[in-house]
């Protein structure tokens, strides 16, 4: 088990794995601003291949459309960092991976790229659950590394909570 700054993330990913294994379920990821860090945290856990088959890093808008079936109109009208896009990413990932659970993130990690409407640190989350899609917007402080680390931890914490509440 890692004993550095990734330790809390490792513990969360390990707990996620125990929950999924107990119910014979799987999870997938659809990541933009984290660039695969959530999938990386999951695959740090030995044996994760029994509950995590694949994840999707869709940094470019074209990848969101091609890999996750995000409607281009969403990207054109509200942008990648938005509730409709992240919800479509989560559903697209769950469908493509045939997973019961999915988490998707899209945000502005910085240092540039922010706006008055979507400042640096803005992240949209979506979780595809057997009961439907849940979404949330958060604004994290700190540099690029801090925003991405907070995003990974929040994504895993909420996924664990949804699984516990729905089992």
UniProtKB/TrEMBL annotation:
<dbReference type="Pfam" id="PF02464">
    <property type="entry name" value="CinA"/>
</dbReference>
<dbReference type="InterPro" id="IPR036653">
    <property type="entry name" value="CinA-like_C"/>
</dbReference>
<feature type="domain" description="CinA C-terminal">
    <location>
        <begin position="12"/>
        <end position="161"/>
    </location>
</feature>
<dbReference type="InterPro" id="IPR008136">
    <property type="entry name" value="CinA_C"/>
</dbReference>
<protein>
    <submittedName>
        <fullName>Nicotinamide-nucleotide amidohydrolase PncC</fullName>
    </submittedName>
</protein>
